[in-house]
Amino acid sequence: MESVSTNKAFGGVQGVYRHASAATGTDMTFSVFVPDHAPGAKLPVVWYLSGLTCTHANVTEKGEFRRACAEHGLIFVAPDTSPRGPDLNGNAVADDAEGAYDFGLGAGFYVDATQDPFARHYKMWSYVTEELPALIGEAFPADMTRQSIMGHSMGGHGALTIGLSFPERFRAVSAFAPIVAPGQVPWGQKALGGYLGDDKAAWRRHDAVALIEDGARVPALLVDQGGADQFLEKELRPELLEAACAKAGIELRLTIQPGYDHSYYFISTFMPAHLQWHAERLKG
Amino acid sequence: MESVSTNKAFGGVQGVYRHASAATGTDMTFSVFVPDHAPGAKLPVVWYLSGLTCTHANVTEKGEFRRACAEHGLIFVAPDTSPRGPDLNGNAVADDAEGAYDFGLGAGFYVDATQDPFARHYKMWSYVTEELPALIGEAFPADMTRQSIMGHSMGGHGALTIGLSFPERFRAVSAFAPIVAPGQVPWGQKALGGYLGDDKAAWRRHDAVALIEDGARVPALLVDQGGADQFLEKELRPELLEAACAKAGIELRLTIQPGYDHSYYFISTFMPAHLQWHAERLKG
């Protein structure tokens, strides 16, 4: 792991790091904020998964999470959203990936692709659930027995599916404007089809609503959704999560926030409340 | 004036606007955050002047000012740092301006240039002190009897010189890592020489330390400066402001913040304390 940049902020250190990932077979860049802490102390870890087109940089620059993380003593980790590289899987993939904002580069959808040519590098599930946690636990003052996960849009999908898949690992799961049922919406159908092919059982393991229908459980979910979000009705459809949680007995704190859109202006507004919610569960 | 974008944030509206400026003879873009407020209410205005290479966008995306502005009920205005245009003053200027980060585009230094070819468009003093305030007063729910000003680096220079020049207008003046004595440092000597020529009396009107030496007074100044700022010793030199304020009897609250650099990671950390300080003076 090499350090790309470190900047003091809110008493702690905002760093950006790069490492050669075995999971993706590419270099991967991620950011970590470590608040000021006592020597030898280990801090809980909040994972933040970003949305389509984003890298670690969007939330790092615009997410306004550092004040709350410093107050609560939380490490904040922001991975990238896909493997990246000029020749990734050859021209066929590079063309497709760079031509579409919702598939390929910046759009890994937090799955391990099984379809050629994506299967070689698009292993974001393994990267985010296995390889990067091991690195974080080694290289930072992280208490890996206290983790939580949140995300935005495609990253909200990632946070919900990973949180539902590892309920013993994540003490809190929340999302901003998540894709809750990728199997039922265009973004998700394109991505799951492209990465996983026709294996609908595999799709269900990467669909929060389907996971809940199939028995996955967490104590509670916190979701904020902008009421003026342009993707609300076609791609996000929080009512599907609401119905699944109601049927499963999962406490869902879903708020449609009037007038808010899909941007970091929305995310930054509600970031402190999410981190407060995470902190209560990470420290309790 | 046309709206470029508006986004709901922290209960208010973060807007970006563009207008044809008479002062600069170009289109100018700026951002304004207006917190939620009662119908008909008018809110105090905080001006934020940005540093070299910046536009309105840097602080708008990375400044983390909206939470505090929403709490205190403050409008936050962020102008651009120079006129902009592909053919600005012809190729001679465009070449120079685009070739240097510290002169020309993104580096107007908040002066009205008197030297050809800059004199035609580089009128940032008139733009920021006359034209844009008139527009803000007309187009936003702004109480122009309650204004304050802050800035970063070159914008800290702008905030200090404008605040010292209009003590009746600005109830609070603060800066992050300001250029305090442009007449004595390389950035400032290049800019003041280029825009104002050899007229050293004109230089002194755009130099905070010289203004204080020449009799300008404000009740107090708040300045935070990163101790690990790479520009501290050569370009910023806060000790010169400290000496001038001590001699003049101006209360200077200067803090060298250990470990902080020149970036928005530094600015965003101390932004809430600055806005608190402004709010106390705007509301008192």
UniProtKB/TrEMBL annotation, chains A, B:
It comes from the Bacteria. Keywords: Hydrolase, Serine esterase. One of its GO terms (cellular component) is cytosol. One of its GO terms (molecular function) is carboxylic ester hydrolase activity. It catalyses: S-formylglutathione + H2O = formate + glutathione + H(+). NCBIfam families: fghA_ester_D. This is S-formylglutathione hydrolase. It comes from Sphingobium phenoxybenzoativorans. The lineage of its organism: Bacteria, Pseudomonadati, Pseudomonadota, Alphaproteobacteria, Sphingomonadales. The gene is fghA.
